[in-house]
Amino acid sequence: MAGVTDYRMAKRALVAEVSRGARPLADVCDAHPDLLRAARNAGTVMRADCPICELADDRADVARDDVALRQVVYVFGDSLRRRSGGLVWSREELAGMAATYDSFTAYVVECCLVCGWNHLVESHLLGTQHGSRPRPAVP
């Protein structure tokens, strides 16, 4: 059986902390340069506003960039061997991996190219042991 963990509630709570000043921006806008590079070059454009840029834009009345928020997928698992820790470029590639490897976890991360916001969106337990296929939400 495949498993999906959704982190939307954690994201909402974190954004609320930033909004009320309980969490500094430096704590949430700290994307590693490799994550930013992956998001820029291989990420799926979300056509949604970055929640942190949205807070700043609401206060400063600045135009929003609807292509800055991207999603990337990384996979980890013993059965992946050298592919563990790698970036997945497409949904088709992920589906092929799910049909080939025994068990692994795909982590979907959103990242803003403007402010560096990054947060885990979902994790998916995939592989032949789980009879699983990636859901449509996974890029």
Verbal overview:
- The longest helix is centred in the first third of the chain and has 12 residues, at 8-19.
- This protein has helices at 8-19, 25-28, 33-42, 51-60, 91-100, and strands at 3-6, 44-45, 69-76, 86-88, 104-112, 118-126.
- The two termini are 21 Å apart.
- 27% of the residues are buried.
- The mean pLDDT is 88.
- Strands 1, 2, 3, 4, 5 and 6 form a 6-stranded antiparallel sheet that branches.
- The chain is built from 5 helices and 6 strands; from the N terminus they run E-H-H-H-E-H-E-E-H-E-E.
List the helices and strands and how they pair.
Blueprint lengths: L2 E4 L1 H12 L5 H4 L4 H10 L1 E2 L5 H10 L8 E8 L9 E3 L2 H10 L3 E9 L5 E9 L13
Can you describe this structure in just a few lines?
The protein has 5 helices and 6 strands. The protein is an alpha+beta fold and 139 residues long. Strands 1, 2, 3, 4, 5 and 6 form a 6-stranded antiparallel sheet that branches.
Give the overall pLDDT as a whole number. 88
Strand content: 25-35%
So how many helices?
Answer: 5
Total separate domains: 1
> Judging from the principal axes of the Cα atoms, what is the shape?
elongated
Structural class: alpha+beta
Strand tally is 6
What level of helicity do the residues show? 25-40%
First-to-last CA distance? 21 Å
Low-confidence segments, given as residue ranges, are: none
Largest sheet entry = 6 strands, antiparallel
**Element-by-element helix/strand order:** EHHHEHEEHEE
Tell me the Rg in angstroms. Answer: 16 Å
